[in-house]
Amino acid sequence: MAADSNSERLGGKRIAITGAGSGLGRELALSFARAGWRVAVTDIQTGRARRVAGEVNDAGGEAMAQTLDTRESDDFDALARRVSDEWGGLDVFVNNAGVSSAGLVTDTSEADWDWMLDINLMGTVRGSRAMLPMLRESRGHLVNTASFAAIANAPGMAAYNVAKAGVLSLSESLRAEEHAHGVGVTVACPAFFATNLLDSFRGTNDRQKAMVRKLMDRAKITAADVAAEIHDAVLENRFLVIPGRTARWQYRMKRLSPDTFFDAVLKATQSFTRS
């Protein structure tokens, strides 16, 4: 599908974003707002959703603020009803909300596994199921935020890796399933960048959290950079988004030489594997 035809198909300029009260979700909301879109800003924290909704209005968009917990199907249904009633439908939906964790498989509790999969993977499933009927009507676009962790699968963060790999796999399935309905799908796999993801972090020791923070602080790309790439991918109907030259090079290395990539991952993550 050509870029210009995709832009025409999304002419209603209506987008809803989960986890839009901060970080990447906020940057996505502002990116589309500056292009004159109506933006449904959803977040588990009502205050954050309302604050960003105000920023969306100031940036040239038209905002709707909605409290949404991705663990609750009823919250997605309520959002779908409100968007349908007030806007007459939806053109783009972004499953963005997520949490982070680190820990060896042997150290991570079943409760933490359940928490991670319920929010990061099943939250994406719930959002997709709730919004796809409207996206089919508008021949719109679905965006899922995964992570480069879904590709690298580094040690010491297995629960997060598995959840995000599930999002990537789900997105590939949806891309094929929704093709006949005219719905485009994008999955974003950003590597580390500065965000507030560590606010919800769960880990088995403080050293792992410190390592993740260090990697985020060293990142050369920002949440705004990632949002800009996702925005372009939606308009151009591109599937896989891997922001940053280094991450794209690493992706190619894994595909061309998996053992070389494995050795590099081991060297870079030695501290993750020590309890």
TrEMBL record:
InterPro entries: NAD(P)-bd_dom_sf, Sc_DH/Rdtase_CS, SDR_fam. Coiled coil: none annotated. Keywords: Oxidoreductase. NCBIfam families: PRK05650.1 (NF004196). Belongs to the short-chain dehydrogenases/reductases (SDR) family. This is SDR family oxidoreductase.
